[in-house]
Amino acid sequence: MTGTIPETMQAAGFDEPGGPQVLRLETLPVPSPAKDEVLIRVAYAGVNRPDVIQRMGHYPPPAGASPIPGLEIAGEIVACGAELSQDTVGQNVCALVTGGGYSEYCVAKMAHCLPVPDGLPLAQAAALPETLFTVWHNVFERGWASEGETLLVHGGTSGIGTMAIKLGKLFGLTVIVTCGDDAKCEAATKIGADHAINYKTADFVEEVKCITGGAGVELVLDMVSGDYVPRNLACLGEDGRHVTIAVLGGMKAELNMAQIMARRLTLTGSTLRARPDEFKALLCDEIYQIAWPHVEDGSLRPEMDQIFPLAQAAAAHAHMEDGGHIGKIVLEMDHS
């Protein structure tokens, strides 16, 4: 390790699962990077739904990962592992990590880092990796989305939802979203959604049929699961694809397999956190080649909601659970 790196750091963790109030600051040793890792002096860390689920005790970190929450960070590389060039030190990057983001220093695989271009604030950079990796993999790789197709996304003003809107529009998709109130529907439309459905006042299945002239959509990005799945399948056209990335509404669904066969539907899904490092490196490289130029030229930016200091991580989680946020919530490190 090089430079003036302290021995300890502040991090936001918890002893026992529970509500937002269990999060508190603690002093921990600064981690050392492995041979293929960099140590990042974190400026900002993104807050994501998996962090909340981990804090509640339902999403333990993979073996070997930090127990500290936080799956995405942005900041300056201050040290690097033995396999890496010292030229990386001093670079500003954002990174996808398996944990440890809610801290002043965090290690990341160099192959999971993306360079922060001039003009991209570090707070926005920290809000990109988790949703960008997730949406890119599930919409374009698993979901085979292609220009001219129509995508249905639930939770249109969430971090995932807003990223799906922005990426979808950049790559030629028509995007339909559902939201829980008219104000969120209006916000989603301003962000770029072609159609926004208030699922509390309208049947989204009927609305999708109306919007698509009865043809249905080619792809559904599903974060709800449970009893939404048969309704989602009713929104799909023939040869449609259904991709599940979360089970916020329940893990079990009742399906009509004859209908799936007759309409040649494809059901798939994924989680990202526990995937092998090699897979994430390939995904990072593909994003860098295809999507990152839109970040570099300013045409892709995360939808930002609110920035909280690290010491207020509990308030950030409460804000996410309240459901009123539009876009991304991030934590700011103090380093004072």
Automatic annotation (TrEMBL):
Q: What Pfam families does UniProt report for this protein, alphabetically? A: ADH_N, ADH_zinc_N
GO molecular-function annotation terms? Answer: NADPH binding; oxidoreductase activity, acting on NAD(P)H
Task: Say yes or no: keyword Oxidoreductase present.
Answer: yes
Q: Superkingdom of the source?
A: Bacteria
Keywords for this protein = NADP, Oxidoreductase
- Enoyl reductase (ER) domain mapped to chain residues: 18-331
Q: Which PANTHER family does this one have?
A: OS02G0805600 PROTEIN (PTHR48106:SF8), QUINONE OXIDOREDUCTASE PIG3-RELATED (PTHR48106)
What name is this protein filed under? Answer: Zinc-binding dehydrogenase
The protein's organism comes out as: Pontixanthobacter aquaemixtae
